[in-house]
Design brief:
With 132 residues, the chain is of the alpha/beta class. A four-stranded mixed sheet has the order 1-4-3-2, covered by helices on one side. The chain has a four-stranded mixed sheet with strand order 5-8-7-6, with helices on one face. It is globular. The two termini are 27 Å apart. The relative contact order is 0.19.
């Protein structure tokens, strides 16, 4: 059985400013933006190439703005960092670790994002994949 994450709430204080940040600066797709009722505005945004989206807006989470942390896999940490910088987003230096190469940034509310370039994993040899 496959389990696929569909939607992650991101708590924000200003929905329109946050939507502009995610769409105009990060390049997320604006999938949906509707005021469902006076207490719920559902704004769904999807990172390029992702099957999982984020949702922002009043009524979508009771989390405090700036408390969410999300990690995303990217093909190239250097390219992702350059995209962020080119679009006016303050990004960390590239951080190489044994389990990947990382770039970090925050949205206007302080929600933290980690972009991970996965390390190259050597293919498993046939003898290593067999269990005694």
């Amino acid at each position: 059985m496959d389990w696929k994450i569909e939607l992650v709430p991101v708590p924000v204080s200003d929905v329109d400013a946050s939507k502009a940040f995610y769409v105009d600066q990060l390049g997320f797709n604006a999938d949906f933006d509707e005021r469902v009722n006076p207490e719920l505005r559902f704004v769904q945004l999807t990172p390029p190439g992702s099957a999982c989206s984020v949702v922002i807006g009043p009524g979508t989470t009771d989390m405090v703005p700036g408390t969410q942390r999300i990690q995303v896999v990217v093909p190239s940490a250097a390219d992702a960092r350059q995209h962020l910088v080119d679009h006016g987003v303050a990004a960390s230096d590239i951080t190489p670790l044994d389990w990947g190469t990382f770039v970090y940034f925050s949205d206007p509310d302080g929600n933290q994002w980690s972009l991970q370039e996965l390390p190259e994993i050597p293919p498993t040899l046939p003898s290593e994949s067999q269990h005694p």
